[in-house]
Amino acid sequence: MNVQQSIINVIFSLDRKGFEEALLDITKNILTYLDANCCIFFIAEDDELIPDIFTTIEKPRLQSCELVNNPIGSMSNWVSQNGLMLILDNSKKDSRYEEELKLIGSIVNNKPVIATIPLICLGDLAGILDIVLNDKNSIDEFKLSQIHPLLNVISFIYSRRHSESLYALFRRKRPLHLWAFITGG
Q: Cα(180)–Cα(171) distance, rounded to whole angstroms?
């Protein structure tokens, strides 16, 4: 996958696709690029993380999560409190990892590597994204850094996916410079 081309394709297709379709396209690209198994999304609402949707590489479609609400000591809870990405695996002996496995255990196999990433849009936490890699010893951190612009697009889409349209967002009095937001410029 060419990350730059993927970003351009996503941006230019946002007006033709619904939020769900755009979110699925991006997560499929991320799963393929990172050789990951699934992505799991959590909504951030009133200081609580609520399991929302997930997709797997085997069944690339957005599916509703049937998970318990987020345990206090989990990776995703720590990420929502600190606003920082966290990557853990079984070798780290970190209790946050074990709590995350309890949370997402019905979706994943074995003892995966989990990258838990805050989805921040316009300064607010919109949600959390878990990227899960089964049967891997580590995540390629260079590749993970390369998808940062796609994660920005996901943050934007995810925070707006229940909105009526992107048009309403762009009618704001203060213009939103989407390209600068996505590329970090």
A: 18
Number of domains in the chain: 1
Kindly report the pTM of this predicted structure. Answer: 0.80
- Angle at CA of residue 136, ends 131 and 138, nearest 5°: 75
Give SS3 for 5: helix
What are 69-100's pLDDT values in tens digits?
A: 666 889 999 999 999 999 998 888 899 998 89
Tell me if 60 sits within 8 A of 30, measured CB to CB: no
End-to-end CA distance of the chain: 23
How far is the CA of 17 from the CAs of 28, 33, 165, in angstroms? 15, 22, 10
* CA distances in angstroms from 52 to 48, 129, 134, 176, listed in the order given: 12, 10, 21, 27
What is the domain extent for residue 162?
3-183
**Rounded CA separation 31/148 (Å):** 14
CATH code of 168's domain? 3.30.450.40
